[in-house]
Write a structure and sequence with these properties.
The complex is a heterodimer of chains A (363) and B (326). By secondary structure, chain A is α+β, with helices and mostly antiparallel strands. Chain A is built from 12 helices and 6 strands. In chain A, strands 1-2-5-6 form a 4-stranded antiparallel sheet. In chain A, strands 3-4 form a two-stranded antiparallel ribbon. In chain A, helix 4 runs antiparallel to helix 5 and helix 9 runs antiparallel to helix 12. Chain B is mainly α and 326 residues long. In chain B, helix 12 packs antiparallel against helix 13. The chains are: A alpha+beta (363), B mainly alpha (326). The interface between A and B is large, with 44 and 53 residues.
Chain lengths: 363, 326
């Protein structure tokens, strides 16, 4: 429902930049401007999204395949083959043999080799059918390959942030802008409601809400339930800030000018008010992604989120709750490293975006 | 001040009613209830189930149950835990105290380190210390506290320097008073470090940016022009003004602290409110969940109120009348 505005010589919106640089050029410029932690973070996130999108190819094994003879197997070293053997393969590992079935200790079988083939059978690397498996990051208590499970688990963590922020973001921006622009009773109602939400001890509430998820639900449905629950908790704070900014934008001259020219409320909101708060919104969105990743991990860790046998970084970490396992099989902590890297990368990126898009906080 | 506090406390009432009603609604949407497990049990007779259903009012409509619960709460009766069969209030009391101790100690830990480090880093802006510590702060902000908890427990397991989780030792009841206190503190060290790290990192960053901002303002230039020593400028003028947002932050940080405490409690097996709530959620113990959520909300609201009062005490520009109009 756009309203045709009378053509007056005065541009109502900010004029487009004189020279529209191509995407490639923009990216190159931004790359030059970024500090090295930001570059590393970007690379890290790109790598994680590749993991998430290409899980079936990148993971060497089926994440639910159990190698019953190899539970809690430590990560295996990869060896480069001598050039004379390159016709058989470039890399090999020594298979592991259990030496103590009670304490689950392993020894390398120095004499034997299991060849790690590259780009075969639709995997980037894997071992031959029937050959002993190669556990890059060790295996879990059921003898499943931890690396494959982490790769599949990345799908949950990497997409929950984006989806959650998408929902929170659109809810918050719409409600906040509406509340700030319309004002009056609607504003009052929305703000009282958001106050209730913000006075909730959010994690307690998250726990209580997670109980609603039926235990027999499919992984995909559970995933969407978690996103919905966290967005439901998260929009209020965001909407309040947007509302404040909208209320202050309402009286600036260019909005008054648009109103004087007869622009509709919707047009003013969508063309003038929302774009002016967009910079803040993008920064806030990036910085709130870690919250979603952490929320899902925490829920899954506590057994209220994604359920076994599906993998998520949070429920993989749940194995470490067993003190014995933590003491003797420390590689089960590795999913936590992935969570940490993802969270830190988003933090670095968000901070950098704030400097670039919303320079008002810098002096 | 008295009037302000009374007003705020009265304002809390509708908030708490709203919060508890939402929680009640949520708990009623949970598939199955506490009795579903018992119904599966062949040794429990249907008469017994029916009796319990009537006793706990599980067969009545939602609003009636909520009304009854609310009426009981007004009389300081939080109901009976369905699993433990004791009053919720007695369960929650000691657990909430543990959570408050943990949160307060973490906050103390975070503040007592963040403020001096923030000052040093800001005064020596762009030095190697600034860079290293600012980077470490980012690290500390990003490490998930449940992961840090696991790392600390691994450290404790490997070195044996600290107890591995738990609130107190097995032999706690046999200890004398000082022994008990020492035992509790010994068990608190790791959780406090876990919970305090994130807060410390973000507070340090805040302190740094605050001091840098204030260092450039006019009254600091005036102070320097008067010939005050750099020490006096920093401690008497800059620092005093830089502390204001901290007090505000203290209020905002409480929700995170409570949530973080819940997670750390669950991972490190500390007998706090969060772990109690988690167990209650798992066993669908409605009244215990409601009680814990209510208690958590009260802690949060009271904490925010205390932070606001502290803000008035610290910042002469803010007074109670301006707070009310917010």
């Amino acid at each position: 429902m756009s309203v045709a505005l009378p053509r007056t010589g005065v541009p109502l919106e900010a004029p487009p930049p004189a020279r529209q640089a191509g995407l490639g050029a923009t990216l190159r410029r931004e790359w030059r401007l970024a500090s090295w932690p930001v570059r590393l973070s970007t690379l890290c996130l790109v790598a994680f999204y590749i993991l998430a999108l290409g899980s079936p190819i990148i993971a060497p094994y089926n994440p639910t395949r159990q190698y019953r003879s190899l539970p809690d197997c430590p990560p295996m070293a990869l060896h480069l083959a001598a050039p004379s053997e390159w016709s058989r393969g470039f890399f090999y590992a020594h298979p592991m043999r259990m030496t103590d079935a009670i304490r689950r200790t392993y020894a390398e079988e120095r004499g034997a080799r299991t060849w790690v083939h590259l780009f075969t059978r639709g995997h980037i690397f894997t071992t031959a059918h029937g050959a002993p498996p190669y556990f890059l990051l060790g295996s879990d208590a059921l003898g499943r390959d931890l690396f494959s499970r982490i790769v599949y688990g990345s799908r949950v963590s990497m997409f929950i942030g984006i989806l959650g922020v998408g929902i929170t973001f659109s809810l918050g921006i719409t409600i906040g802008a509406l509340s700030g622009y319309v004002g009056g009773l609607l504003d009052n109602l929305i703000m009282r409601w958001s106050e209730i939400e913000m006075s909730l001890p959010s994690f307690y509430f998250l726990l209580a809400l997670a109980a609603v998820i039926p235990s027999g639900m499919s992984t995909v449905k559970t995933f969407f339930m978690i996103v919905a629950i966290m967005s439901f908790i998260g929009w209020a704070g965001f909407a309040r800030v947007i509302r404040g900014m909208t209320a202050s934008v309402r009286s600036v001259p260019y909005v008054e000018a648009a109103r004087a020219l007869g622009a509709s409320r919707w047009r003013i909101l969508s063309r003038h008010v929302i774009p002016s708060v967009m910079g803040y919104a993008i920064v806030a969105a990036t910085l709130s992604i870690p919250g979603f990743i952490l929320g899902e991990s925490a829920l899954s860790l506590l057994g209220l989120g994604i359920q076994e046998p599906a993998a998520s970084w949070g429920n993989l970490l749940a194995q470490a709750e067993d003190v014995h396992a933590l003491a003797h099989y420390p590689w089960i902590l590795l999913p936590g490293v992935f969570i940490f890297l993802a969270v830190m990368s988003f933090n670095f990126l968000g901070d950098h975006l704030r400097d670039r898009l919303d320079p008002s906080h810098l002096r | 001040m008295g009037k302000f506090i009374v007003k705020r406390v009265i304002n809390m009432v509708p908030l708490l009613v709203g919060i508890t009603f939402i929680s009640f609604l949520v708990m009623s949407m949970v598939p199955g209830d506490f009795l579903s497990n018992l119904k599966m049990n062949p040794s429990v007779s249907p008469q017994m189930i029916a009796q319990m259903q009537a006793q706990f009012g599980l067969d009545q409509p939602l609003l009636v149950r909520y009304g009854k619960w609310l009426w009981a709460v007004v009389h300081l009766n939080l109901g009976i835990s369905l699993t433990y069969r004791v009053s919720v209030l007695s369960l929650i009391g000691s657990r909430a105290l543990n959570t408050v101790i943990l949160s307060a100690a973490s906050m103390l830990f975070a503040w007592s380190l963040a403020i001096p480090i923030g000052i040093i880093v800001a005064v020596k802006q762009n030095s190697i210390w600034d860079r290293v510590l600012s980077f470490l702060a980012f690290f500390g902000m990003s490490v998930p506290n449940f992961f840090l908890a696991f790392l600390m427990m691994y450290l404790a397991l490997r070195t044996g320097w600290f107890p591995v989780g738990g609130t107190y030792s097995v032999f706690y009841p046999q200890l004398d008073l000082w022994g008990k206190i020492a035992d509790r503190i010994n068990h608190l060290i790791l959780p406090v470090m876990v919970l305090g790290t994130a807060g410390m990192a973000s507070l340090m960053r805040l302190m740094r940016s605050q001091i840098l901002e204030i260092k450039g303002s006019d009254f600091v230039r005036t102070a320097r022009a008067k010939g005050l020593s750099e020490r006096a400028v920093i401690y008497k003028h800059v620092l005093r003004n830089a502390l204001n947002p901290f007090v505000t932050m203290a209020g905002y940080g409480l929700a995170d602290l409570l949530g973080g405490a819940a997670l750390v409690e669950a991972v490190m097996n500390l007998q706090g409110l969060g772990l109690l709530l988690l167990d209650a959620v798992r066993s669908l113990d409605v009244y215990l969940v409601m009680g814990s959520v209510l208690m958590g909300s009260v802690l949060l609201l009271v904490g925010n109120l205390l932070a606001d009062i502290a803000l008035v005490a610290v910042d002469p520009r803010v007074d109670f009348s301006s707070m009310e109009s917010q």
